UniProtKB/TrEMBL annotation, chain A:
Name of one Pfam family that matches: NIR_SIR_ferr
Domain annotation Nitrite/Sulfite reductase ferredoxin-like: ranges: 564-626
Cited CDD domains: NirB_Fer2_BFD-like_2
Domain FAD/NAD(P)-binding as annotated: residue spans: 8-298
Domain BFD-like [2Fe-2S]-binding, residue spans: 423-470
Residue stretches making up the Nitrite/sulphite reductase 4Fe-4S domain: 636-761
Cofactor binding annotation: Binds 1 [4Fe-4S] cluster per subunit.
Family, as annotated: Belongs to the nitrite and sulfite reductase 4Fe-4S domain family.
Cofactors that this protein relies on: [2Fe-2S] cluster; [4Fe-4S] cluster; siroheme; FAD
Name of protein: Nitrite reductase [NAD(P)H] large subunit
Length: 836, 129
């Protein structure tokens, strides 16, 4: 198809919803039929506005971005950032920007909304800001540098988010709300009171029923706010977050139909009054409603995709139920939470002033259906209540049991009880039925269901529900969820680990004798032997070259080198932090020359010497150790490298000595055997030159210490590491990593990287934080002690091997002949040897 | 090796007078693991992987050191184990399993490694062509 016959689709706006439409177009192959041009007025590409307040906790624009920098280019979508559309000519079917005119066949308005600033005299004073975009956040951060106090005008969802951001900037923070309580849309008087108590306990001042009359010069602070009763409040910084308004200006100016209180009117196909123009997201008014949440916006994007590709999907409204954590306080709202839309509805309320939990259910007059619910302080019953509500499931005989405290586990709704239409993941519109379809198509575990359906990859709120649905269905289909590691042990890796630890078992033969599956021949196999070898090393750190351990090792561990495709080995000495003296660099060159080794710089900032013959390995290592090198464990499921940027010692931007830290960390954790390899990165400032956020452990320097990121990965399935803790000092950093790594070593499956481990971890990042940072399992000290044992028992395996004639016996090409393997043939390429 | 080639090899073998020779000594072996040995035969040199499983019903195996999947001589460096009761070695490169008893590849019926009769004579390891 020639490009001229393609339709031109122009999308105005590159927020979360506009971006989602692009993703939908890409994923559904619609780009073969259309040229897509996107205009975004911000300089950044689409980012995650839901988690905006994390911007002040170390997540920068790049980490908040919703796609890779080259995503649009890669898929042939034209993306014009920093280019605002200034007018639409419906007759000519063009849009104009300051840079030119662009023709469209279909136009999509995804312009979103803007923050409403109440018409208060003085609201345009310097230091009176809004909270909506990354640029807004930069302005808030700049203003906060010379401020001690901050006020948020507006006590709704966004207002509390903004308050959280101000707290993050260490400002003494107050929230002002016009209504008699916080979050008046979501909670009632009792819930609001509880919410106030909780938020005040965090040191945030809450002032309700306050209408600001004017803002003027303050006496002690920059501003003075004067209220309706002439009371005053002084502050240095004011953030308005009093609701949002649709950005419908462009639509008004080209005379599209606009709602009475704003918003571009759309039909069920997301078309405006001009069928060539669609509107989606917070600018769109459907059935008199604006949907200020991301999930309905995504639904509209999907509908728009269908409309643009002659599909027949309709937008039929969206459930506005939400589960939030605001300033660390759980708030949940489901359906008719206030009970004022259903005459005759009955209310159930539970209030615990001690644990500060409030739960309310709105139930139909016959007591059979849940019409709405409200939760403050604890969202643990949210998922269950939402399923009752969304699927119209009949309530138990005593509905109150759903919100009353339970002595045992709360009565969760079994996955069985859900109909196939039940929405499991509302971010990606995944129903129980589509999960079954994924399993029909071959997905056989949680990770593949997630990969195929994208369920639980949005906000992640449905993770535990998804797991129970998948587990239950797999079990029901007789898919044996056999967790046995192999035929020799009816145990998981984690169980074997616990057995080894608790019983102090130090050899494979003892383990298989005592705990092997009955009838086994006591040999093990290439699955269980390396796994047990790794567990024994993690627990006791005896040299893997000891006679009892050597048969357990993969060939790479056996010969402490990496076997390459022609049977030769590669040699990687440790170059901690990527720092190497010229003298040592010379030695590497000399050794490579002497033994004819192909030399290449690795991604982990060290040097890999390829093509070493088995029988040469001891001599090569003899020379390397003589020069002060030690083994780099490139062959092991263990710590590989700690990559670093050059840091504050040389770089004008660096705020900490990242190389020094990288070397300390690499030397601390070298030799730690783990379920899989472990990579670290340390960056000296937020520019992140060490790419630490793609590592299992990523550390980024801050003015005050170190931010710790965990569970990132590059490779086949890249995953951004997640921010785990901020502004740690050196000691706290070591302690946290000790605990984290040991917990991973203890609980991960065999050959499971931290990223996959994390994705399968029930409770997710929050749970991990509780265990590691809050020590919720009370095992923090034990984990640290264990790590210290490993650290204390470290010895260079190669140094041990070359001084032991018995161990060296293995490094012979043939036990009865000293000739090298004649079938290894090399050829020359670009001045070096390579396998022929 | 195809089945026909195998048969031909066996026919050729049967015409020869079976001869044995010492390959190495027991001390050269590594318990529950493998070593490689050089083996001169009338048909030319062979590389043999020797596996030693002390205390097992059959303690000693000799199997071709050459891995047909990678075309490299690496079988002696694989991990020894048992699968469904049969002693096997896993290729260290692409992880196929070969039965030590008869060289059969468990992942690919058409592939079989050459095996030899091997035994201890005192402390010597004795192989028969």
């Amino acid at each position: 198809m020639s490009t001229t016959s393609k339709r031109n689709v122009v999308i105005i706006g590159n927020g979360m919803v506009g971006h989602h439409l692009v993703e939908q177009l890409v994923e559904n192959g619609a780009l073969t039929q259309m040229n897509v041009t996107v205009f975004g007025e911000e300089r950044h590409r689409a980012y995650d506005r839901v988690h905006l307040s994390e911007y002040f906790k170390g997540r920068d624009a790049e980490a908040l971005a919703l796609c890779d920098a080259d995503y649009y280019a890669r898929h042939g979508v034209t993306f014009n950032s920093s280019e605002a559309v200034v007018s639409i000519d419906r007759a000519a079917k063009t849009v104009a920007t300051e840079r030119g005119h662009y023709a469209y066949d279909h136009l999509v308005l995804a312009t979103g909304s803007y923050p409403f600033v109440p018409p208060i005299p003085g609201n345009d004073r310097e230091g009176c800001l809004v909270y909506r975009t990354l640029d807004d956040l930069d302005a808030i951060r700049d203003a906060a540098q010379s401020a001690a106090t901050g006020v948020v005008v507006g006590g709704g969802l966004l207002g509390l988010e903004a308050a959280n951001a101000l707290r993050g900037l260490n400002l003494e923070t107050a929230v002002i709300e016009f209504a008699p309580r916080l979050m008046p849309m979501q909670v009632d008087a009792e819930g609001g009171e509880l919410l106030r108590e909780k938020i005040e306990a965090l040191g945030v001042q809450v002032l309700t029923e306050r209408a600001t009359q004017r803002i003027e010069d303050g006496a002690a602070s920059r501003h003075r706010m004067v209220f309706q009763d002439d009371k005053i409040l002084e502050t240095d910084l004011i953030v308005f977050s009093a609701g949002i308004r649709p950005r419908d200006q462009l639509a008004r100016e080209c005379s599209l139909e606009i709602g009475e209180r704003g918003g571009v009117v759309i039909n069920d196909q997301c078309q405006t009054s001009d069928p060539a123009i669609l509107a989606i997201g917070e600018v769109a008014l459907w059935n008199q409603s604006i949907f200020g949440l991301v999930a309905p916006g995504y639904q509209m994007a999907k509908t728009a995709l269908s409309t643009l590709t002659d599909g027949n999907a309709s937008f039929v409204g969206a459930d506005m139920s939400t589960k939030l954590k605001l300033l660390g306080v759980d708030v949940g709202s489901i359906g008719d939470a206030h009970g004022n839309q259903n005459p005759g509805a009955r209310m159930f309320r539970y209030l615990d002033p001690l644990t500060q939990i409030y739960r309310k259910m709105v139930v139909s007059s016959d007591g059979k259906k849940l019409l709405g619910a409200m939760l403050v302080g604890d969202n643990s019953v949210y998922d269950t209540l939402l399923q009752y509500y969304a699927n119209g499931i009949e309530l138990p005989k005593e509905p109150a049991s759903l919100i009353l405290p339970q002595s045992g586990a709360a009565p969760a709704l079994g996955p069985d009880a859900l109909p196939e239409t039940a929405m499991i993941c509302s971010c990606h519109n995944v129903t129980k039925g589509s999960i079954f379809a994924a399993i029909d198509a071959g997905a056989s575990d949680l990770a593949s269901v997630k990969g195929d359906t994208r369920a639980s990859t949005g906000c992640g709120g449905c993770a535990s529900l998804l797991k129970s649905v998948v587990d239950h269905e797999l079990a029901a289909r007789g898919v044996e969820v056999d967790k046995s590691i192999c035929e020799h042990f009816q145990h998981t890796r984690q169980e074997l680990y616990d057995i080894v630890r608790v019983e102090g078992i130090k050899t494979f033969s003892e383990l298989i004798e005592k705990h092997g599956a009955s009838g086994a021949h006591h040999l093990g196999c290439d699955i269980c032997k390396p796994a047990v070898g790794s567990i024994l090393a993690s627990c006791f750190n005896e040299p893997i070259t000891d006679a009892a351990h050597i048969p357990l090792q993969d060939t790479n561990d056996t010969f402490m080198a990496n076997m390459q495709k022609n049977g030769t080995y590669s040699v990687v000495p440790r170059i901690a932090g990527g720092e190497i003296t010229p003298d040592k660099l010379v030695v590497l060159g000399q050794v490579a020359q002497k033994y004819s080794l192909y030399s290449k710089i690795t991604g982990g900032q060290r040097i890999d010497l390829f093509g070493a013959r088995l029988e040469d390995l001891p001599d090569i290592w003899g020379e390397l150790i003589e020069a002060g090198f030690e083994t780099g464990h490139a062959y092991g499921k263990s710590l590989r490298t700690v990559k670093s940027c050059v840091g504050s010692t040389w770089c004008r931007y660096g705020v900490q000595d990242s190389v020094g830290m990288a070397i300390k960390l690499e030397n601390r954790y070298k030799g730690l055997r783990a379920p899989h390899k472990i990579k670290f990165g340390v960056s000296g400032c937020t520019r992140e030159c060490a790419e630490a956020q793609s590592k299992d452990i990523g550390i980024i320097a801050t003015e005050n210490g170190w931010n710790l990121y965990v569970c990132g990965n590059g490779g086949m399935r890249p995953r951004h590491a997640e921010l785990f803790a901020t502004d740690l000092d050196n000691e706290a950093l070591y302690r946290t990593i000790d605990r984290f790594l040991m917990f991973y070593v203890r609980t991960a499956d065999r050959l499971q990287r931290t990223s996959v481990w994390r994705e399968n971890l029930e409770g997710g990042l929050e749970y991990l934080k509780e265990v590691i940072l809050d020590d919720s399992l009370g095992m923090g000290e034990e984990l640290e002690r264990q790590m210290q044992t490993v650290v204390d028992n470290y010895q260079c395996e190669w140094a041990g091997a070359i001084s032991d004639p018995d161990k060296l016996k293995r490094f012979r090409s043939y036990v009865n002949d000293s000739r090298p393997d004649p079938s290894i043939i090399m050829t020359s390429e670009r001045g070096q040897l390579r396998p022929a | 090796m195809t089945a026909t080639a195998m048969k031909q090899a066996m026919v050729t073998q049967s015409r020869q007078v079976p001869t044995g020779q010492k390959l190495c000594s027991k001390a050269d072996l590594v318990a529950f693991s493998g070593v490689a040995a050089w083996f001169e035969t009338p048909q030319g040199p062979k590389q043999v992987a020797l596996f030693y499983l002390p205390g097992h019903p059959r303690e000693l195996y000799a199997i071709d050191h050459h891995d047909p999947f990678s075309n490299a001589n690496v079988i002696a460096h694989g991990i020894v184990g048992d699968i469904k009761g049969a002693a096997v070695v896993a290729s260290p490169l692409y992880k196929q399993h070969f039965r030590l008893e008869d060289g059969q590849c468990l992942e690919d019926d058409s592939v079989t490694l050459r095996t030899w009769k091997v035994s201890f004579k005192g402390v010597d390891v004795w192989i028969e062509e």
